[in-house]
């Protein structure tokens, strides 16, 4: 089974400015640790397309993470630009992941259909946008835990990855 090395990027003007504590990033990190997933990076950036692109690019080019979770910036606010920044970076979209998270989340709240979150692949890294709410972000990660090891095996083109089909 592939080892998962994850980075977590919180996108929030207020958390970046220090006027509001980031609860989502640390909640995701704690959840990942319960699953034995190694944290490679954690950072907070403002709701700014270029800041998001820059941080994602740096982590991807460094190559220590095979999955990056972003939290925040996926709604309808004019400042919510995480999906657009992510689309700039990814080479191939993975719509099934985003659609599954939205569908499962909609079972809990109809507001989930307002999410514009995307996911996709850049080099050997999977990027998944999550909601900004700590509860919703963690629920979203829990929904996809069962497929993450296989997704990473496929992404890394590991020899045994096909046996799980």
Fold and architecture overview:
- A six-stranded mixed beta sheet has the order 2-1-3-6-5-4, sandwiched between helices.
- The longest helix is centred in the middle third of the chain and has 14 residues.
- The chain has 165 residues and is α/β, with parallel strands linked by helices.
- The chain has a single domain, classed as MoaB/Mog-like domain (Molybdenum Cofactor Biosythetic Enzyme, Chain A, 3-Layer(aba) Sandwich), CATH 3.40.980.10.
List the helices and strands and how they pair.
Layout (H helix, E strand, L loop, with lengths): L4 E7 L1 H5 L6 H11 L3 E8 L3 H14 L4 E5 L10 H8 L2 E2 L1 H12 L12 E4 L2 E6 L3 H11 L3 H8 L10
Parallel strand pairs: 1-2, 1-3, 3-6
Antiparallel strand pairs: 4-5, 5-6
Helix pairs in contact: 2-6, 3-4, 5-6
């Amino acid at each position: 089974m592939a080892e998962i090395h994850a980075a977590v990027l919180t996108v929030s003007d207020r958390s970046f400015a220090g006027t509001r504590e980031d609860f989502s990033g640390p909640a995701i990190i704690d959840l990942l640790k319960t699953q034995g997933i190694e944290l490679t990076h954690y950072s907070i950036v403002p709701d700014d397309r270029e800041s998001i692109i820059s941080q994602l690019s740096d982590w991807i080019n460094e190559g220590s993470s095979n999955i990056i979770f972003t939290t925040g910036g996926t709604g309808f606010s004019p400042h919510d630009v995480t999906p657009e920044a992510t689309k700039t970076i990814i080479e191939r979209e993975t719509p099934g992941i985003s659609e599954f998270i939205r569908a499962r989340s909609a079972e809990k709240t109809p507001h989930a259909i307002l999410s514009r979150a995307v996911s996709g692949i850049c080099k050997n890294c999977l990027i998944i946008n999550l909601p900004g709410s700590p509860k919703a972000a963690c629920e979203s990660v829990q929904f996809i835990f069962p497929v993450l090891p296989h997704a990473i095996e496929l992404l890394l083109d590991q020899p045994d990855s096909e046996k799980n089909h």
